[in-house]
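Technical appendix A lists one of the benchmark inputs used to test multi-chain prediction within the project. The record comprises two sequence entries:
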Amino acid sequence: MVAKPVFRTCGLTGLKIHDEAEKLIKANAVVAIVVLAVGGLFGLLVALTRWPSVHLLPADLFYLALTAHGIDILIVWCIFFEVALMYFASAILLGSRLAAPKMGWVAFTLMVLGAAITNWKVLEGNSSVMMTSYVPMQADPLFYVGLILFAVGALIACFIFLGTLVVAKAEKTYEGSIPLVTFGALVACIIAVYTIASGAIILIPTFLWSIGLISHIDPLMYKVVWWGMGHSSQQINVAAHIAVWYAIAAILFGAKPLSEKVSRLAYLTYVFFLQIASAHHLLVEPGLSSSYKIFNTSYGMYLAVLGSMIHGLTVPGCIEAAQRKKGFNKGLFEWLRKAPWGNPVFSGMFLSLIMFGFLGGISGVTMGVEQINIMIHNTIYVPGHFHGTVAVGTTLAFMAITYFLVPALWQREIVAPGLAKLQPYLFGLGMGVFSLFMMGAGTLGVSRRHWDMAFSDAPHAFSHAPAAYLMMGIVGVSAVVAVVGGALFVLIIVASVLFGKPIKAVAPAPAPSPVASYGSEEHPSVPGTFTLALLFLTMFVLYYFVNWKYLASTWLLS
Amino acid sequence: MSITPPPQKVWFNEPVDKVELLWVGMALVWALIMFAMMPLWHLKGSQNMSNEAYRISPDVYQARVDAFVEKFKVGEEGKAKTPVVRPPAGSDVYLLARLWEWYPVLELEQGKSYRLHLSSLDWQHGFSVQPANINLQVHPGIDEVVTITPTTSGDFGIICNEYCGIGHHTMLGKIRVVAGK
């Protein structure tokens, strides 16, 4: 017999919360944050080793820690949190029961088991193959098994999300179209499904190769398919954290999209064009034609970049429109100045938005140019870029929404509000500087995934420019600042969940009241956002062409 | 709100504000400019990826490198006594990557072009010439041919920037570019 779903009404938001969905969201979010702590610790060890004057770990442990950091943060932390978000965006936002909660626990168990097995093998020291595990370098067979189990779990979670959309529609828990945030989660889910498919296509044969059942995996083929998972998994993050931005804008400001059509079409460009951009990672590979590289890495003429640039306008734009509606109308930026900068939900979200665009976005598109990539491939510029996307973009956005989820789901107040106020700035700005100076060191040729930039044991002598050492020093210092911010986040959230003052839902709060309709038909004026967007475009154009100029000054290649 | 269903059932027909349309237009134009830059650089620019590559077995590649070294060797250099090779301008130059060395040391002339062959005998490696900052991926089983023209002179390091195991950070080769006469 199937038990009747149990619901409660959220005292904060008036949302209808399915008991089983809530438990699953909590479980996935808790594991995500534990993994963030573990992965962050490995990250600290990596950063302290790359800080030239500290050079903490010996080489073998450095490569081990780097492998663990990559897998735990880029894959495990992000996906666990995204599963929680998918359940939230479906069951909770639609006021529906979660489809097949038992399968949700199966998915959860598989993911925990998979992550644990892969971590165990990495920590054993015989699988320091980096997150990418490029063949013919080989890891322990169980390393691949762990990743496969994790992926199967994540796939089940995706189908529970899709099932919940079907259930909500069938049981008429909402009217009309799904909310924009749920739409964003749906886009993330679709990308996740083909990401996991790519992962299965390459990791299963690689596992069979590692136990000797297949004699050879072609290294180039491996990379083409592996990046169908590796890059696309980061596009799940993009779709998910943009949904978080929209969600926070709605939660804090009652913001309504400037236009449902524009925002949703921008999301749709992701579904069509993000996947092919995984060819970004193959720009300087031999054996692939330039036309393949140019079409694919430009996301089919930069149409997915167009999508991101649109969100770059519409997310702050919807906040500006909401703030102006409330009377913050003076000048270009009163709406932004008078925003709740002391609330970590807002400050985290807005820092994430700005830095994702300016640091991660601009650098990502520029380095993804076929020719410019010649100057950047596998230098430390690359991790500089993706800390500008995954750390200050995704992770900071996820941190921001956690400050909302704890009172909403755990019904606990955030402890140490003073520290919580500071936390997004420490993590965000620390990571921002970290990312910027890694990119700087990369343009000076410092290699990524490299233990010794002094080459002390090499057969020849080579020394990097002193500026490269200085920049790697700044990278080390800013990493420490960011890690302090990250640790503070974990401590505040764990302490709030365990010891936070319970929030008593006195009376069922009124249903969320959207601010009066100021949809596109009323021509919302967002001059401040448009100014920011123009500033962004100017920076983008300048940076893009500076790189071409720099490229033109190096050796000739054809 | 973004967390509630759109108030209008047929939201697709809502008019879109000028600011949004203007921005979409600007972003689209920028996207197309960026897209055009890559083919344009293939036509007008001098730093482009080669499209020439062949399947090759590591043994055959090694034999070619050995023959090349024998023919043009002018000396030895470094802790491992790596041969130094000075090939004539315009010729085929072979560089080999393996755990954990670049072999041999190349001596090239500034302003002259060479057909540089790159391949690995074992795992993947990263050919990173510094401080010229040229970074190419090197695969086992693929003979990649790049026409390269050094425009600056001096000693350049070849850093391996694709992680290749525990000795990765010791994998450093050398290209010496002699100033043109």
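The mean pLDDT of chain B is 95. DSSP finds two helices and twelve strands in chain B. Comparable benchmark entries are summarised in Table A2.
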